UniProtKB/TrEMBL annotation:
Designated name of the protein: Glycerol-3-phosphate dehydrogenase [NAD(+)]
Matching InterPro entries: 6-PGluconate_DH-like_C_sf, 6PGD_dom2, G3P_DH_NAD-dep, G3P_DH_NAD-dep_C, G3P_DH_NAD-dep_N, NAD(P)-bd_dom_sf
Record EC number: 1.1.1.8
Glycerol-3-phosphate dehydrogenase NAD-dependent N-terminal domain sequence ranges: 4-171
Keyword check for NAD: yes
UniProt gene name: gpd1
Binding-site list for NAD(+): 8-13, 97, 153, 281, 315, 317
Domain Glycerol-3-phosphate dehydrogenase NAD-dependent C-terminal, first and last residues per copy: 197-355
Amino acid sequence: MKHVAVLGCGNWGTTIANLLATDIDVSIFDNNVKMYVHETELEFEGKTRKLSEIINNLHINPKYLPDVKLSENVVAVTNFVDLKNTDVLIVCVPHQFLHTVREVYEVILKKEELIVINLAKGLVFEEKLSTPSEFVSHLINKKCSTLQGANIAHEIANKVVAETLIGYHDEFEKRIFKSLFVKPYFQVKFVKYNPTIDVYGALKNVVSFAYGIIEGIIESQGKENEHDKIVFGSNTKVIVLRRGISEILKFIEEEGYKGGKELFLETCGIADLIVSCEKGRNKQCGKMVCEAVKSCQSEKGMLSDILEEKFNGQKIQGMDTVKILYEYLKSKNRQNDFLMIKMVYELLFETCDLSPVYEFI
């Protein structure tokens, strides 16, 4: 009997834990899916309560997925030791916290048999640039698969039909993942592992952030603005989308990642980019940044605080990804070859106004 654990309890981690625990195949897996929760206290129904207790007793995650009733088989744990019997580890923490995987791995008893799959989106730049699955693999000296796709968490939590892509390493892993993840409303395509899958998941966040900034400008046009003689519209949004796709493909090719054009047509590529620009968190954040700039609420270091407050403390992957990308490109004196990345970086971390956007367009 294999034990399954999800590392992370944000909206995506909670959604995945619930998906796995619902109608789990008890001939293969233990019926409980453990979900590691970074313990916090919050006001809920007039009382101060621990998040883990609310999840386990009331089967709801009011902080990150408040409108979805969770399976009773989702069990919140707050200590890494509670994950010691894990056979399948699903990594679903923001890429900034991937180091915690090593701490979990150290307490796991059956290290040789452990299967690990990454669901985080982002990049890590420590001496060299790594995707989340590459970074986890390096941390624990073990292969790490990846799941990426056009997956809006709250829609999947409500069983809205979606598809995803899993990059796996061997046929045994593939069978395990198929038994766990495939649901009538969650279609899964399997391909051999390729880090390019993760690269698409990271870079689309930057493009959708830029897309949201443009939408924010469009919605605020007509108010007092020194740039009002320059009018943005649907054509302008498509400029951002086209240039964003161009920069993604350019980055993949120049960094030596393989299979970029083939994977572009999969759900981890163009599909994820489209849905992120339509409904993703980073698109929403781009719009909020525009609002903050317009209302003069933005100062260096404040924008990330404003956004995290809006999203209940959840990390905004696009902000960190663009910072990592820019610093990496600057270390190679290539920042001027990727003007969208440069534009978003300058707006967020240097000027805190919209001048880089108008210069970019």
